[in-house]
Amino acid sequence: MKQPLLVICLLCLSGMSLYAQDKTPFRRSTYIKVNPARLINQLEFTVEQELTQRLSLELGIAGIYTDYPDYILARKIDIGQKKPDISTEQFVDGRGLGFSASLRWYLVTQKDDISRAQGTYFQPVLLYKKVFYPNEKINIRGTEYENTGDKDVYAVQFLLGRQITRDRFIIDPYIGLGVRAKVYDYNNFYDNNGVADSRDGRLISVLPSLHLGIKIGLRL
Question: How far is CA 93 from CA 67, 73, 195, 214, in A?
Answer without folding.
Answer: 7, 16, 29, 26
